[in-house]
Amino acid sequence: MLLVPHALAAQIAAEAARQYTTAHQAELIQEFSEFLSIPNVAADPANLKRNADLLVEMLKRRNVDSQLLSIPDAPPIVYGKIDVPGAQDTVVFYAHYDGQPVTPSEWEGNSPFTPVIREVNGEQRIYARSAGDDKAAIFAQLTALDALRAGKISLRANIRFVWEGEEEAGSPHLEQILDANRDLVHGDVWLVCDGPVDQSGKQTVVFGARGDAHMEITVYGPHHGLHSGHYGNWAPNPAMMLAQLLAGMKDEDGRVLVPHFFDGIAPLTKIELEALARAPVNDQMLMGSFWLGHVDGSGKHLLELINQPSLNINGLSSGQTGARATNVIPPTATADLDLRLVVGIDWHEQQERVVDYIHSRGYFVVESEPTREILMGHAKVALVTRDLASYNAVRTPMDLPIAQEVIRAVQSARGDVVLLPTMGGSVPLGAMERAAQTHTITVPIANYDDNQHAANENLRLQNLWDGVGTMAALLEMK
């Protein structure tokens, strides 16, 4: 094995990755496609296990000591271990192999688990569920190992791989599994390889993620659908009631009006504010890319707004539309809310603030299906279901020695790097930090326009090849 000076190590590792991926592109695309072809949604535990078993096999094929970390009724964590003689440090690489649910009819030209390659604006992309989120990161880590070994470049730290199987379901068992295996998962740093790079295309290093809390609200009208001509203007319409309730939660500029929603935010530090000031402002480009004639936020930039809590409506359901529409007053209306959190705001408290707001609008709030007596005894009734698989935001200080080491490694491999205090998406960083007694730093590789969580999810292949170089530099980091 070739030992190299520390200052050049990341550059040499990234160059070895470039040479390797260039020489093996066809076979790498084939292997990645086979990985993507295995369904990986929560409702299909048998195929989740197939994914996990394949990953164990892929690790063993590379002479990595590997096993499944399991508890009953939860997808296993795939665990890999490389011990380096004389190494003083341990670096843990996290990613997840599960994906969001799919609606095959919404996909254009292929099913979600039949990967295809298409050319978009002169560049090749691979289309499949989890192509960007998050099988790409796992495959980049495995390929980076191959590249380093092909280049006879030695690792300088102990390496651990922790690949989760239920991140898209809120990671309800992650901390429990990690707690049961503390000796295996401890590291000097956890590198969380999830999410997209900056919209400018530059490699990004992120030092935190927003927390996440979900709620479902159902409001009630008549016991069953009523003819809208015979009973309209008399029987309350729950779809309208819910629309009015939700409309009061935000103003026309998108600012949340729920009382105390912004209370407790931990301010950004000087170094974090300076990093934000240096980051590219991509708002105008994104408006064109997403066909947006206006944006929320009263003129604030996207990166500024990501560092604030948000309230989003994931979906609404009541009655029917289109060819299935009927002239009825529907019996119920339901909304799924997504609350994104920042450091300083507790997820329990944020859910309670929304419940308090619903109370203030004259609703009697219940936590189980209301009876006839409850519905007739109160003018307005709302069933609120709080998702307990929620978690708080986490932010790692940018000036920690290990943080600076990660920045140097990525910069050496990729040049100009965007540093951000917080990622817009959510990852259960708190569970990782508590169980592994460590700090987390996020190093994503996917393209920003990968249709993450939506139909036609894709990965720009150049992002995969660049990601292999980034992972190689981090694997070689001391």
Number of strands: 20
The fraction of residues in strands falls at: 15-25%
CATH architecture descriptor of the largest domain: 3-Layer(aba) Sandwich
Q: If helices are DSSP runs of H or I spanning 4 or more residues, what is the number of helices?
A: 16
Here the CATH topology of the largest domain equals Aminopeptidase
Count of discrete domains: 2
CATH-defined superfamily of the largest domain: Zn peptidases
**Structural Rg:** 24 Å
Task: Outline the low-pLDDT stretches.
Answer: none
Helix fraction bin: 25-40%
Q: Main sheet? A: 7 strands, mixed
Q: Structural class, please?
A: alpha/beta
In CATH's first tier, which class of the largest domain applies?
Alpha Beta
Mean pLDDT over the full residue set: 95
Whole-Å distance between the termini? Answer: 16 Å
Based on CA inertia axes, which overall geometry fits? globular
Descriptive notes:
With 478 residues, the chain is an alpha/beta fold. It has 2 domains: 6-207 and 396-475, Aminopeptidase; 211-268 and 307-386, 2-Layer Sandwich (Alpha-Beta Plaits). It is built from 16 helices and 20 strands. Strands 9, 11, 13, 14, 15, 16 and 18 form a 7-stranded mixed beta sheet that branches. Helix 1 (6-23) packs across helix 14 (401-414) and helix 14 (401-414) packs across helix 16.
